[in-house]
Design a protein that fits this description.
Blueprint lengths: L4 E8 L5 H11 L17 H6 L6 E7 L2 E7 L7 H8 L4 E7 L6 H12 L3 E7 L8 H12 L7 E2 L8 H11 L5 E2 L5 E2 L10 E12 L3 E10 L2 E2 L3 E4 L5 E3 L2 E5 L3 E3 L2 E2 L4 E5 L13 E5 L17 E7 L5 H13 L5 E7 L3 E8 L2 H15 L3 E3 L3 E2 L1 E6 L12 E5 L2 E8 L13 E14 L3 H10 L3 E7 L4 E9 H4 L3 H8 L5 E11 L2 E8 L2 E2 L5 E4 H18 L7 E7 L2 E8 L15 H21 L6 H8 L2
Parallel strand pairs: 1-3, 1-4, 4-5, 5-6
Antiparallel strand pairs: 2-3, 7-8, 9-10, 9-18, 10-17, 11-16, 12-13, 12-18, 14-15, 14-17, 19-21, 19-22, 19-23, 20-21, 24-26, 24-27, 25-26, 27-29, 27-30, 28-29, 31-32, 31-33, 31-34, 34-35
Helix pairs in contact: 7-8, 12-14
Length: 625
């Protein structure tokens, strides 16, 4: 019965104590015995344990006072916002955890907006009240201002010691509504709505994992009907048809049960070999074919940051291919396609949700598969408007035909500078703009504003959380955020400022491709799309770095940065000089001059025909963030 089920998730800014609170809940409800408990029990990946961050959402079923509780622990970092959005589509309530020592941070706001969009009941919880620096009164005032709740609604806890955690579980029973049902058009409605469907099985896939022995395992929230072992099911988006080989709940490991009932969160073992057949956000369906409408769940977040991944040793490409395929099975947000570079050989173009996501993927390739890789400069996805119908020419770049000033034109997406058409062949280029919120103590407002303006930011407004802390709102191009923006923000605010951003829109600007030429030859691995105002600075920096890392040759090497046909920065590496006159013992000066002239001619010829071989370590050093 759905009356005895409560589905909720824990949301918070990074490091505010979500996973620790989940640990105490598991302990208090007796879901895991004390012998099996360890810090961050729901963070199962080594990299999560070591970094102390949650990367993957983790569901678990608990029992409290005769009621079944389904909890989803979510990540706090902005790069893994897609994990949070998927969790919120599957629950009816959210516990908002705020650190009593730090107060509301950027991701706290972002997660609250997401929860309100999903019409969730929010239970505010202040954590870390056991710390001497905790300021319960100040932070409570911030939470009241944000949510418009009463002070009595806020529960003060210490997830570390377990103080008052039972009150949070009681609040979940009291305030979180029972699971929602579906009407005939697959819209979510209150449980007691009379239009709810009864003769179909519909479940939303909010996550999926690949298991070596079981194949694809989908994590589902069941909105109507029930799923039993051997039931015949269909995925409405991909059209794949399966038999449920096993159904179960999370304890927090896979725990097979006979049936998943309406309102419950569980898993289904599909036996499929590819995650593309069971996409996150798809609807699992069985029953009356006339009611075959997908659940209107969360919107899929698309990656805006792309980078090339290549093996350091070109012979290791088959191993890299296998490693990336395995990694994609357990990370549905990682987008990949094959790519060939003249300088780096065969590799992959990969789409990421942010720089931390990119860093995690690189580290997992090394840890799980012992793959040492070269990553090209991260790039965002740009949009170009080309005159005419270019569908055939740019078929793989997701073209979109529009009518522009009475002429048929084509929008194409470009994330790789190599795919950029020649200047003059397109009408304009647009770049993605992000809505950015920075929360900072008042004394650092000037520093943060200066940083945002240096990065081509447009000021939108500021709001004071209290007398000492302010929210700065900006619109900043995404290309400016994916470099060292976060590191600079932390440095300029002595570590106190926090950042949250989300894609807002595409905007036309003065953008061009910056090329790097070594000995007159373009090195595509260093090409990037830049704003013309920043081109000279970026080009000069790369040229200076390359001069340090490219070894000397028998002839002089020029390193140039170019915007189209214009050279905007240059460095030169002088030739290695061999003393050709060392064997001479006296004699006429003309003999010496003759040898030096011969050497000079040889160097000229070498410069004309010689090739500069750039060692792979140079790419690693230059392309390092």
């Amino acid at each position: 019965m759905t009356q005895s089920i409560r589905n909720f998730c824990i949301i918070a800014h990074i490091d505010h104590g979500k996973s620790t609170l989940a640990d105490r809940m598991l302990e208090i409800t007796g879901t895991i015995d004390k012998r099996s408990m360890h810090a961050q029990t729901l963070d199962t990946m080594d990299i999560e344990q070591e970094r102390g961050i949650t990367i993957k959402l983790t569901p678990v079923r608990m029992a409290w006072k005769g009621v079944e509780l389904n909890l989803i622990d979510t990540p706090g970092h902005v790069d893994f916002q897609y994990e949070v959005s998927r969790s919120l589509a599957s629950v009816e309530g959210a516990i908002l955890v705020v650190d009593a020592t730090q107060g509301i941070e950027a991701q706290t706001l972002s997660n609250v907006y997401l929860a309100l969009e999903n019409d969730l009941t929010i239970i505010p919880v202040l954590n870390k009240i056991d710390l001497p620096s905790a300021d319960v009164e100040r932070v409570s005032a911030e939470v009241i201002s944000l949510l418009g709740c009463k002070k009595s609604d806020i529960i003060s806890v210490s997830a570390k010691t377990g103080e008052n955690v039972e009150l949070v579980l009681d609040a979940v029973l009291e305030y979180v509504p029972e699971p929602k049902r579906l009407d005939k058009d697959a819209n979510l409605v209150a449980h007691n709505d009379l239009s709810a469907t009864t003769d179909v099985t519909k479940a939303l896939i909010f996550d999926s994992q690949y298991d070596t022995y079981k194949g694809v395992v989908v994590y589902t929230k069941l909105f109507s009907g029930q799923i039993k072992k051997w039931d015949k099911l269909e995925f409405l988006n991909t059209g794949a048809k399966i038999e449920a080989l096993e159904v179960g709940c999370f304890s927090p490991k896979y725990n097979p049960v006979g049936v998943i009932d309406e309102g419950e969160i569980g898993y289904v073992v599909t036996g499929l070999k590819s995650l593309t057949d069971a996409r996150v956000g798809d609807t699992v369906f069985a029953g009356n074919q006339n009611l075959k409408t997908p659940i209107k769940g969360f919107k899929r977040i698309t990656p805006y940051i792309f980078a090339g991944i290549y093996p350091v040793d070109t012979d290791e490409y088959p191993k890299l291919k296998e490693s990336i395929e395995k990694l994609t099975l357990n990370d549905s947000s990682l987008v990949t396609e094959n790519e060939v570079s003249p300088a780096l050989g065969h590799g992959f173009r990969c789409g990421f949700l942010g720089l931390l996501h990119l860093d995690i993927v690189k580290e997992r390739l090394w840890r799980d598969f012992q793959m040492d890789v070269i990553m090209t400069s991260p790039q965002v996805t740009y949009r170009l408007l080309l005159p005419g119908d270019k569908v055939q020419e740019y078929g793989r770049l997701h073209p979109e035909l529009i009518d522009y000033q009475g002429q048929t034109c084509t929008y194409i997406s470009v994330s790789n500078p190599e795919d950029l058409p020649k200047a003059g062949t397109y009408k304009f280029m647009e770049e993605p703009i992000a809505k950015v919120e920075m929360i900072t103590p008042s004394e650092f407002i000037g520093n943060c504003m200066q940083l945002a303006q240096e990065r081509r930011g447009t000021f939108i407004g500021q709001t004071f959380l209290d007398t000492n802390r302010v929210i700065l709102s900006y619109e900043i191009p995404m290309s400016e955020l994916i470099g060292d923006f976060y590191d600079d923000l932390k440095s300029l605010s002595s570590g106190y400022a926090s950042l949250s951003y989300e894609f807002l829109r595409y905007q036309e600007d003065d953008l061009e491709r910056l090329d790097i030429l070594v000995a007159g030859e373009r090195v595509d691995a260093f090409s990037m799309i830049v704003h013309t105002s920043r081109a000279r600075y970026l080009g000069g920096r790369i040229c200076a770095k390359l001069k340090e890392h490219i070894p000397k040759a028998q002839f002089a090497i020029s390193i140039q940065a170019a915007l189209g046909a214009n050279i905007i920065a240059r460095e030169d590496i002088s030739a290695m000089r061999k003393d050709v006159t060392a064997k001479l013992y006296g004699g006429d000066i003309t003999r010496k001059r003759k040898l030096l002239e011969k050497q000079k001619e040889g160097k000229k010829k070498m410069k004309q025909f010689g090739k500069v071989s750039i060692p792979s370590e140079t790419f690693v050093n230059i392309l390092k963030k």
